[in-house]
């Protein structure tokens, strides 16, 4: 899994600003302070020149104003660590410095308001209005006249409300951008998880389909190959026939594999391998009997098909099982093998496919883990009720050592998933008779198309 590191846009104090974005703020502060100093003390200078103000008081106030302004400006870099403290301190310093009121106090108020915490904002407002009012009261009366209250109140309000409003706007915008950024990251992560889940689902689906298609054939190949390895008493004809069966099942496995791979390469990317139904059970039983399996098939859903079918397949390893089953309807062999689903009472397509897979996997499992054991298959059910499937096998036969194989791990687990998707239940485990049993119950709707 590939993960992408996303730099989080931290709200307010966490945002890292470029050098220019820092510089222009200080340029605005210095420019505002100088303009305020020029305008105010230019007016006072005219008053001194006209003899209406003291020159010594003018000079002392101007020097104090400039010195406080420099100190306040030097404190501004600390506003990111302690925004409320710096905002309050610079506002109070404005009581003796008009330059500080116009520059550093305004920037500190903006920074404090971007955090959108109301208690620090109100405290800053009280400090700023107090500083402006104190400046008005502390300035020598001979330098400039006192402002009337109806002028002073709007000045106090504007001096605080403008920077506070601007700071609240910046804070809201940063919060919105941070939220959008987080949502984009979350959407991207969810998209990645969905892709990974889809890929995992496709891999599981492919593995299940490959197992369903190939496990049956490969188990037959393993059985016959094992017989060739351990059975030294086979005649030349039996050896040739067994080798032909190995070749035939290997060829069929390759053909089914090519079919699956061909579907996987389709342009739409959909995986739709062949899905046999209960109608394919005759061929399944024929192949198993041709391999020497002992199968007893019972149930109300199955009709009689002569056992000569199995003998014919044993004699012709390259014959098509389905064709042989179809051609066996006129055979006169008296030994019945019930293996053809009764028509027209057919289960729905999904139920029929699932039932076939249950029988196929249970038989494959029996051949792998209990070679030589007899297998009993029973199917019962009716529309509007349940389709009951039971596949049991006894203990391994005398030739058990000849056919021991390794499973893929997808069989019974895949069956449970298939049965769950069809709305049924499945149970499997030892049957108490040194054997194994697989039982499944699938819903059989009366009118599935309605």
Main attributes of the structure:
two-stranded antiparallel sheet; Heat Shock Protein 90; alpha+beta; five-stranded mixed sheet; 7 strands; 2 domains; 13 helices; disordered N terminus; 450 residues
| Largest β sheet strand count, sense and barrel closure | 5 strands, mixed
The CATH superfamily title of the largest domain = Histidine kinase-like ATPase, C-terminal domain
Counting DSSP H or I runs of 4 or more residues, the number of helices is 13
The total strand number stands at: 7
CATH architecture of the largest domain: 2-Layer Sandwich
Q: Give start-end ranges of low-pLDDT stretches.
A: 1-15, 304-344, 400-409
Looking across the biggest beta sheet, what order are the strands in? 1-4-5-7-6
Described by the principal axes of the CA atoms, the overall outline is rod-shaped
CATH class group of the largest domain: Alpha Beta
Task: Report the helical percentage.
Answer: 55-70%
Query: Structural class of the secondary elements?
Result: alpha+beta
